[in-house]
């Protein structure tokens, strides 16, 4: 149930971020819905394909598409009358990243994959949808910018796995993992925290 709720909330939040980007890019209604859907299900679709999970999660359960439709529609109504708050896109993206990274990790974990695969699947589930959204809207993907993004997802999933390894309840591990990802992303957004830069060799 926790895994399912994380997925649904993550889908809703990423759909919101897709609409916000579409509105900023001047797309029409169809473009807004398309970008919302791509952002919301892109990472999970890639995860399911790589893990050979069929049918794909949103084909198996159409409620995911309904959540996207509702979240996107409400966001469109909002932005039609009021400008989004300054950090709304980054906050929505950070929350979607956190929820999807942990839910993706749990799905890989439930299929008895190694910890490395669990971390990779979690990070990919959290980041791929946002990357596709940014590419389709001609933006530099957040994952390629200097602030913490994929690193935050990896860190949160690692903490989640460690807590379970030492015997912590799964619900507690999930909450802490989500909090770690959110905390790292907000640290990057507010204070500009980032990994060390690569320097060209001379």
From TrEMBL:
Origin superkingdom: Bacteria
Coiled-coil boundaries: none
Membrane-spanning residues: 5-23, 29-50, 62-81, 87-108, 115-132, 144-163, 170-188
Topology relative to the membrane: Multi-pass membrane protein
InterPro entries: Gly_transporter
Keyword Nuclease applies: no
A Pfam family recorded for this sequence: Gly_transporter
Residues of the Glycine transporter domain: 5-77, 91-164
Keyword tags: Cell membrane, Membrane, Transmembrane, Transmembrane helix
Keyword Transmembrane belongs to the record: yes
Subcellular localization: Cell membrane
Similarity field: Belongs to the UPF0126 family.
Protein name stated in the entry: Trimeric intracellular cation channel family protein
Organism: Dyella mobilis
């Amino acid at each position: 149930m926790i895994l399912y709720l994380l997925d649904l909330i993550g889908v809703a939040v990423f759909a919101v971020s897709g609409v916000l980007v579409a509105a900023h890019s001047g797309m029409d209604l169809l473009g807004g819905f398309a970008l919302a859907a791509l952002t919301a299900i892109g990472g999970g679709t890639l995860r399911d394909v790589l893990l050979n999970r069929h049918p794909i999660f949103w084909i198996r359960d159409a409620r995911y598409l309904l959540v996207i439709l509702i979240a996107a529609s409400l966001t469109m109504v909002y932005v039609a009358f009021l400008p989004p708050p300054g950090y709304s896109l980054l906050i929505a993206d950070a929350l979607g990243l956190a929820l999807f990274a942990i839910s993706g990790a749990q799905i890989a974990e439930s299929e008895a994959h190694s910890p490395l695969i669990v971390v990779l699947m979690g990070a990919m589930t959290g980041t791929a949808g946002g990357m596709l959204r940014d590419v389709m809207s001609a933006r530099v993907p957040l994952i390629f910018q200097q602030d913490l993004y994929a690193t935050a997802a990896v860190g949160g999933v690692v903490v989640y796995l460690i807590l379970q390894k030492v015997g912590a309840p799964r619900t507690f591990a999930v909450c802490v993992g989500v909090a770690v990802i959110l905390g790292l992303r907000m640290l990057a957004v507010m204070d500009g925290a980032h990994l060390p830069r690569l320097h060209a060799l001379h």
